[in-house]
Amino acid sequence: MTDRLDAQMAFLMEADRLKSILRATPIADDSRRENSAEHSWHLALFALVLGEHGADVSIDRVIRMLLLHDLVEIDAGDVPIYGEKDEAAIAAREQAAAKRIFGLLPADQSASFRALWEEFEANETPDAQFAKSLDRFQPPNLNLASGGGSWRDYDVSYEMFEARVGQKIARGAPGLWDWVGPKVRAYLKG
Amino acid sequence: MTDRLDAQMAFLMEADRLKSILRATPIADDSRRENSAEHSWHLALFALVLGEHGADVSIDRVIRMLLLHDLVEIDAGDVPIYGEKDEAAIAAREQAAAKRIFGLLPADQSASFRALWEEFEANETPDAQFAKSLDRFQPPNLNLASGGGSWRDYDVSYEMFEARVGQKIARGAPGLWDWVGPKVRAYLKG
Predict the structure, then answer these.
(1) Which of A110, A165, A178, B32 lies 20 to 30 Å (CA to CA) from residue B26?
(2) Which class does domain A2-189 fall in?
(3) What was the ipTM of the complex prediction?
(4) Chain A closest CA to B112's CA: distance in Å?
């Protein structure tokens, strides 16, 4: 059992580095940028509270998915949603990161965690679509609270927001989109 | 549904403040102190990976408990384990915090979240004991990685560590105590 626990602890201590990956969005009081570890906690809490707004979802699976979803950023970095990007290069970097980071775990856990992450990325099952919707729904709420946040830094219009973010929120959580969409529209067009 | 979602969002945005509550323990690279939001994420990941080391536990319940366990610190502050403390005053502050913070939620969620937090605090069920053991098991690993961490700041001896931390790890997760105890002993006596 010691070899197994050694491997589990190597993974958990490597995961600590996610606390140093900064995202484009500030925390709500605008004092600093959010990091991907605290973002993952916040999203898991969103899932726990807002589960009833998803259709046919297992909240506990969604929470597990959200706890893991950003770990690849330890190697691949955060990709700001409004920045320029080479999707194929990012996907390749994230696949290599998943292989290395989940590969620290014992083989059975490595396979099951990686499958959950792949399911999130593919965005096809109800659980993945709801998780992805929450991942898109949380940042506009921080931007509204902080006085613009990443919209300010990237000069984002409402049309850009609707195309890159709104449609993804609506896909897995239409009720959450109905709630936040008008607030963002009023802010960005106001 | 809008009133209900308004209440849920008020809670989730208040929860954002946990990202600004600093703990006594540094992150593993010793670059800064850990905050209670990223700590909560790290612990939930510990539960997901190390669940097999608990006896008779529901990992998904433990994860839910750990996502919520530190929210009272938004009002009551973090209580460093090696500091001087007035237990009764802390308990009163935390009860008032739980009432206010969980009270932001719709009544049904307020009651169920608060019950889960009370269960964690009481430390009697297998789920609570395992969650509490993880909450005590993670910081010594960060202290070992960072070159002393909160042991350095509080001038902690191995005997003090064993009494305040070791026994709580052993209560809910004896296998984890067997793994980390000798490492801490070698470090603090070395």
Answers:
(1) A110
(2) mainly alpha
(3) 0.97
(4) 11
pLDDT tens digits, residue range B78-123?
A: 988 888 889 999 999 999 999 999 999 999 999 999 999 999 999 9
pLDDT tens per residue, range B8-37: 999 999 999 999 999 999 999 999 999 999
Residue type, A182: P
- pTM for this structure? 0.97
Q: What is the pLDDT of residue B49?
A: 98
Neighbours of A135 (CB within 10 A): 23
Record: contact A28-B17, CB cut-off 8 A? yes
CA distances from residue A37 to A103, A122, B153 in whole angstroms, order as listed: 20, 22, 25
Cβ-Cβ contacts under 8 Å, A176 against chain B: 5
Closest residue in chain A to residue B178, using alpha carbons only: A2
Cα dihedral across residues A29, A60, A122, A116: positive or negative: positive
Interatomic CA distance for residues B103 and A43, integer angstroms: 20
CA distance A185 to A169: 15
Domain boundaries, chain A: 2-189
